[in-house]
Amino acid sequence: MKKVYYFFIVFFIVILLLFLFSLRNPILDTQVVFTEIVVNETPGLNLDSDALYFGQTTPGGSAKRALIFENSYPFDVTVYFQINGSLSSLVWTRENPVKIPQNSSKDVIFHIGIPKNTTFGTYNGTITAVFKRR
Predict the structure, then answer these.
(1) At 72, phi and psi to the nearest 5?
(2) Confidence at 121, pLDDT banded by 50, 70, 90
(3) Based on the number of CB atoms within 10 Å of its own CB, is 113 exposed (0-12), middle (13-18) or buried (19 or more)?
């Protein structure tokens, strides 16, 4: 009977510690941005503002675009990026994670590099930005 009692005490303490640890750095916000690149024989632009478009490029080409992330919280935040979809192996940023001071904004540049052997087509996906308290 004592073993069961000690087991429940240890189990409760572990659960309590996990809960307290999760409160230390909670997710404040998550933003998802649709992203697209068209690989074709001629380069071109897409200036639509409803997503992060890299336009049109040729195999072996590259492009970059910036997104502005704003911190309106009265404390510093850290933003973590995750890139998903068919272009996830083509897009990267040099800043991951990004620290943004309170009540300020930060331009984050996303790069895309198309290998020379990439087939023509439309590659898309999402960039997910997760905001956490620093």
Answers:
(1) -100, 5
(2) very high
(3) middle
Is domain 26-133 given the CATH code 3.80.10 in the classification? no
CA-atom Rg of the chain in angstroms? 21
**Does the N-terminal peptide bond of residue 97 adopt cis geometry, omega within 30 degrees of 0?**
yes
Domain boundaries, the chain: 26-133
Backbone torsion region of residue 60, taken as left when φ is above 0, otherwise alpha when ψ lies between -120 and 50, otherwise beta:
left
- Is pLDDT at 111 greater than 90 in this prediction? yes
Mean model confidence pLDDT for the chain:
86
Give Cα separations from 69 to 31, 62, 130 (angstroms). Answer: 10, 23, 11
| pTM more than 0.70 | yes
Spell out the residues 6+ positions from residue 123 whose beta carbon is closer than 8 angstroms to its own: 36, 37, 38, 39, 85, 86, 87, 90
